[in-house]
Amino acid sequence: MEGFVCHMCKGFVFEMGENVAVSRRWLRDAVVGLCMLALALLIIAKLEPSAVTDLAGPFQAVDGDTLSSNGDRLRLLGVDAPELGQQCSGRRGSYDCGNTARDGLVAMLDRADWLCEGGGQDKYRRLLVRCMSGQTDLAEELVRQGLVVAEGSYLAAEAEARTGQLGIWEGTFERPSDWRRARQLLEMEPEEGFMTFAIERIAAWWRR
């Protein structure tokens, strides 16, 4: 009887071990399968062309690197403009380089017909765009004139502006990202019309 009980115990232990091994193999196979599925989905998403939006304007300048078209906000790729109210120093002293960048963008928009192409959004739900007029890249021209800084792209144009001491490069300034970080600010997103006017007037009053 004792031998029979021992045999039964051994069989039970063996069976439990087999079940554990099968469960582990099933879990391993399931994890591998999920990983392969996730990888396949990532590859498909990468290969699938993004929806591209073409815009022909008219465009309005919200700030130095943001446009507005029919109520939609458009963010120029590859550049970062000084914020409205940000102070830079130049040959004639301190000035609002954010406002100067916006004025420069306004002038460029008025001088040519631009076609903007975008295929994604930033965290503010602005369409990320690259704008061209013939062979002229709007963002690159802003960098070349020293109105904005390059962000990964247009480094050669930024080097030209720096060498020629154009725009913000004629004096000293904080890069916009550093300026925001020092004030614990996100990238500003001013409203058009009254809100923009109010912000500028408050900033001017505060600087007196």
Order of helices and strands: HEEEEEEEHEEEHEHHH
The geometry reads as globular
Task: Report the portion of residues in β strands.
Answer: 15-25%
Tell me the structural class.
Answer: alpha+beta
Number of strands: 11
Q: Uncertain regions: pLDDT < 50 for 5+ in a row? A: 4-10, 43-49, 191-201, 203-208
The major sheet is characterized as: 7 strands, mixed
Written account of the structure:
The chain has 208 residues and is of the alpha+beta class. The protein contains six helices and eleven strands. Strands 1, 2, 3, 4, 8, 9 and 10 form a seven-stranded mixed β-sheet that branches. A two-stranded antiparallel ribbon has the order 5-11. A hairpin with a 2-residue loop joins strand 6 and strand 7.
What key attributes describe this structure?
globular; alpha+beta; 208 residues; 7-stranded mixed β-sheet; two-stranded antiparallel ribbon; disordered C terminus; single chain
What is shown here, in short?
The chain contains six helices and eleven strands.
Ordered list of secondary-structure elements with their pairings:
Elements: H1 2-47, E1 53-55, E2 60-63, E3 66-69, E4 72-76, E5 79-80, E6 87-90, E7 93-96, H2 97-111, E8 115-121, E9 127-133, E10 136-137, H3 138-144, E11 149-150, H4 155-163, H5 176-182, H6 194-207
Parallel strand pairs: 4-9
Antiparallel strand pairs: 1-8, 2-3, 3-4, 5-11, 6-7, 8-9, 9-10
